[in-house]
Design brief:
Layout lengths: L64 H20 L5 H4 E4 L3 E7 L2 E2 L6 E4 L5 E7 L3 E11 L5 E12 L2 H6 L4 H17 L4 H6 L1 H16 L4 E15 L23 H14 L25 H12 L2 H7 L1 E8 L5 E8 L5 E4 L8 E6 H8 L5 H6 L4 E4 L1 H4 L2 H10 L1
Parallel strand pairs: 9-12
Antiparallel strand pairs: 1-4, 2-3, 2-5, 6-7, 7-8, 9-10, 10-11, 12-13
Helix pairs in contact: 4-6
């Protein structure tokens, strides 16, 4: 109860956990069907001050008659002063709004319909305004440790794209939109992945990303926010699940234009694309399955021993086949990062500790165990990349040329 008004007519209602109108497919809030009429009225508590903007109704019924008359008089006087002092006042009251922005105006503390695009009028003294960008934004969730359903421990991050479809709700319903969205995404990702097994996380990243996007939309739709895309990034497996190894992964990485395809179809599409690429040599071909081979693997102890084994097979013929310089960023069990290089660009090649003398063609980051497993032929380079254990900076085809060196080590 206020001096110039009456008590709010909004009723307190519990916020429903799931909207039955929402479809099973993510990214359908642009139609605003879930917020029309009775689906998203004032649901109590923190939304008592939000007008019924889902119906484009900005009428505040809690305002009393005397307060409305005072607001009308003050607004008229400001309009009059602005008109008299025009065009000088035009430099201060006229704002140019581009197509991808809207202006949210609070006139004497009460919300007004969004303005823009084009030239809009903002009255001095009584109008407080804020610009809202409607373009798609993106942020990344830093890698965090998640305990899977079967007892495994993985490090998983995510890249998330979102946009604002209701500029008014993004201003009045949440204080810090970016921080709230980032925290919501991290919590939703950890809760969703903790209910999945390690095998499901490794092989169904695209599907899990879609479901994670739907879960986030359920939580962020009251803020006028729509999550367009969620892409999970598996940094590595920190602990194997209880009861044995999770097994090899044959899921190919996400490729632009192929994200919506199922695993086997995407794998066939990538195989077709690889066939259309210019062939390097018969020894550069990469198989897309992690086959169990009976050939003996190279026996090394540690990365330094691996470098000694690589140094023993360096030759001009190998340099002619590969013609690339590799830089390895190896993460040890203690968390330290050590640098190694294999330079196969001139002479008989070189390898060792540190960084190469020339700019590397490809930089590869992985754990020490995964590096040894890859060079012992227990895990192919493409499988390491597709499972997220190998991160490549540079041309992927050049990185896959490591298969030539690995085959050579296997035969020695």
């Amino acid at each position: 109860m206020t001096m110039f008004g009456k008590s709010s007519g909004y009723e307190y209602q519990s916020l429903s956990q799931r909207d039955s109108v929402c479809s099973d497919n993510p990214g359908l809030f642009s139609s605003h069907a879930a917020f029309t009429h009775n689906n998203y009225e004032q649901r109590g508590h923190s939304f008592d001050y939000v007008p019924k903007i889902s119906q484009n109704d900005f009428t505040d019924k809690s305002q009393g008659v005397l307060s409305w008359i005072c607001n009308l008089i003050v607004t008229f006087l400001v309009f009059l002063v602005t008109f008299i002092t025009f065009p000088i006042s035009g430099w201060f009251v006229l704002k140019v709004v581009p197509n991808y922005e809207r202006i949210i105006v609070f006139r004497l503390g009460r919300i007004r319909p969004p303005k823009g695009p084009g030239v809009v009028l903002v009255l001095p003294l009584i109008d407080q305004w804020q610009k809202v960008d409607l373009r798609t934004r993106a942020f990344n969730v830093p890698p965090c440790k998640v305990t899977t359903k079967d007892g495994g421990l993985v490090s998983v991050g995510a890249d998330i794209q979102f946009r604002i479809w209701s500029p008014v709700m993004s201003v009045v319903a949440v204080q810090d939109l970016n921080a709230s969205t980032r925290l919501t995404a991290q919590n939703a990702m950890m809760q969703t992945l903790s209910k999945k097994t390690l095998r499901e996380i490794q092989t169904e990243r695209i599907k899990l990303g879609e479901h994670l996007g739907m879960d986030m939309n359920e939580m962020t739709k009251p803020w006028g926010l729509e999550v367009d895309r969620v892409e999970l990034i598996l940094e590595g497996v920190l602990r194997e699940p209880d009861g044995g190894h999770s097994g090899p992964v044959i899921m190919p990485p996400s490729v632009p234009g192929l994200e919506g395809l199922a695993g086997p179809i995407q794998q066939l599409a990538m195989h077709f694309l690889s066939q259309t690429a210019p062939p390097q040599s018969s020894q550069d071909s990469v198989s897309f399955t992690d086959e169990v081979r009976s050939a003996p693997a190279v026996s090394v102890s540690g990365v330094d021993g691996l470098m000694d084994a690589v140094r023993s097979v360096l030759s001009e013929q190998l340099v002619q086949q590969v013609r690339a310089c590799f830089c390895f960023q190896i993460i040890t069990d203690s968390g330290q990062t050590n640098s190694y290089y294999v330079d196969l660009t001139q002479g008989v090649g070189a390898c060792g500790v540190g960084v190469p003398l020339r700019e590397p063609d490809v930089s590869l980051c992985m754990s020490e165990q995964d590096l040894l497993a890859m060079f012992k032929s227990s895990m192919r380079p493409f499988v390491a990349y597709s499972s997220g254990r190998l991160r490549v900076q540079g041309d992927l085809n050049t990185a896959m040329k490591l298969e030539t060196l690995i085959k050579l080590l296997k035969t020695t």
